[in-house]
Each structure stands twice: as C-alpha cells, then as structure tokens.
Amino acid sequence: MLFWTHFAQDALNILWLGVGLFLAGVLEAFLWKTKPFELVNIPIQTQWFGANKRWRGLISLPLTCVVSTFFLQVFEAQFFSNSGLQIQLSNFNFLEYGLLVGFIFNLSELPNSFVKRRLEIPPGDENNKLFYVIDHMDSTYGVLILWFFYFHFPLHLVLTGAIVTPLLFMGATWVRRQLGLKA
After folding, report:
1. What pLDDT is stored for residue 82 in this prediction?
2. Phi, psi of 30 (to 5 degrees)
3. Measuring CA to CA, how many Å separate 37 from each of 10, 26, 32, 101?
4. Residue 1 pLDDT greater than 80, yes or no
5. β-pair partners for 43
6. First vs last Cα of the chain: how many Å apart?
7. What one-character-per-residue DSSP string does 130-170 give?
8. Better-scored residue on pLDDT, 176 or 62
9. Angle between helix 94-107 and 109-118 (nearest 10)
10. If we measure between CA atoms, which residue out of 32, 15, 33 comes closest to residue 72?
11. How much is the pTM?
C-alpha cells in the first residue's frame, strides 16, 4: 500500500512538472508562425535526422519553456505554496530550468530519429506501435536524466517518471492534435 501511495504522489508531482512542458509545446506552435522562426525553419541535418527535425524546435521550446516555468512559478506561489509536492517549479531558477528542460527535451529526440532514418522508417509514422511508444520515450527520458543528474531529483521520482512520462507525452500529443497544433 505504501508503494502505491508514493507512486501516486510521484506521478502527481511529475504531472505538475509536465504541465510546464505541455504549455511550452502549445506556445511553441504559435511561435513557429512568426517571422523570426520562419528563418530557422530549416532541417538540422536531413540525411541524419530527416526533414522534420528543425532548428526552430531546438530554439523555440527552450524559450517557451522559460515562459511557462515563470508563469507556473507565479501560479505556484499563489495557490500551491503548501501543496505537499516534493518538487515544485519554484525550487528552480526559471531561466535555467526552462532553457535546460526545453533544450534537452528536443535534443533527446535526435538519436531516435537518427536510428529511424537508418531503418528507413518515415518521420511521423505511427503505424508501428513500438516506434510510437519509443517516440514518446526519447524526449521524456532525456528530461528524466537531466532531472536526476543535474537537478538532483530523487531516484524514486525518476523511476516513476520512466513509466508515467511517456504516457503523459502521448496524451499531450493527442491533445495538441485535437487543438490543431500538431499534424
């Protein structure tokens, strides 16, 4: 029983931390439609990662993650100061946290894309369920590694995240599609 209580608390904490990335992803979709981001809407390296991995993602998500982290810290201070969450966004410098989490989230997609291009799996192909799940593990696992080694999150929270974060990311992808923010 105690295990499930801790698991649920960790999952709730991860859900809260994931709200920042979700909001950053929503903001990012709007940012991509602006003139400055049209200039960086070029592939990083087409042969290695495919045409859909673009410089704008490596630049825009860290910036929008800074913004979402800042606003969630303000929200936390007003409504969640005694929430019982072990890790709150207000524990961090919003600039450092937002830039690192946003950058690592998108950077962590590149090795998976590299392997998929070698296996001749087209970008965005969701027919293979195994690769669909792996597609939602790469970015989240990159952030979990960052949380553990850089931000010193406890191991139990990171292990819970290994289960919970890909599921949250799949849910966020579905929501972004429903909102017309993702093809």
Report:
1. 72
2. -75, -35
3. 36, 15, 5, 20
4. no
5. 54
6. 42
7. HHHHHHHHHHHHHHHHHHHHTS---HHHHHHHHHHHHHHHH
8. 62
9. 10
10. 15
11. 0.89
